[in-house]
């Protein structure tokens, strides 16, 4: 829970926020102002930088018992809580009418300004943490979505790969089977062709033999009539076993 701020009258100061939430008393500054380690609030407006002693998270700070809540400029007669730097770590209360850095009665010592936070940084840090959590959740969702997308992409690529593989492989297999069948059939036809040709040659030779025999019979019949069988006449024209022809007696 954000600590409350109190003014010099120990009343709640709703216009400022604590510069720290560690539980220790700290100065309170207006939202957007810078918190310095010496208890001042630093306001930057363009090129102008001003310093202020404002309120505190400890109701009793006005008594000067809180080191982080300076009180030098709280009760000056001319009012105002503005602070100006003089030199050598000396400051004076500027108020509404200014101050004289050469007047020792108006000057006090304070550590140099060292910005440690902004008056709104703690709220911003909480918001940033929440935003970081949301970003983490968003990142997780994004990772899950990416995983799902990768799985879907992998499945899609697998389906495309199978489709392409089957589309190319099946025609190749069918083509190989058709080529094997075609060449085997042609080989069988080629092997059978000589046998068919040989059979045809035998048949043709047989037919020619029959035709020659008929022609010889017809010629013999025409020459000799029915006197003798052509085979006997042929035998008479042949000589001894050497096959030399002899003259007919």
UniProtKB/TrEMBL annotation:
<dbReference type="GO" id="GO:0016020">
    <property type="term" value="C:membrane"/>
</dbReference>
<feature type="region of interest" description="Disordered">
    <location>
        <begin position="125"/>
        <end position="154"/>
    </location>
</feature>
<dbReference type="GO" id="GO:0071944">
    <property type="term" value="C:cell periphery"/>
</dbReference>
<feature type="transmembrane region" description="Helical">
    <location>
        <begin position="158"/>
        <end position="183"/>
    </location>
</feature>
<keyword id="KW-0472">Membrane</keyword>
<keyword id="KW-0812">Transmembrane</keyword>
<keyword id="KW-1133">Transmembrane helix</keyword>
<dbReference type="InterPro" id="IPR051694">
    <property type="entry name" value="Immunoregulatory_rcpt-like"/>
</dbReference>
<protein>
    <recommendedName>
        <fullName>Mid2 domain-containing protein</fullName>
    </recommendedName>
</protein>
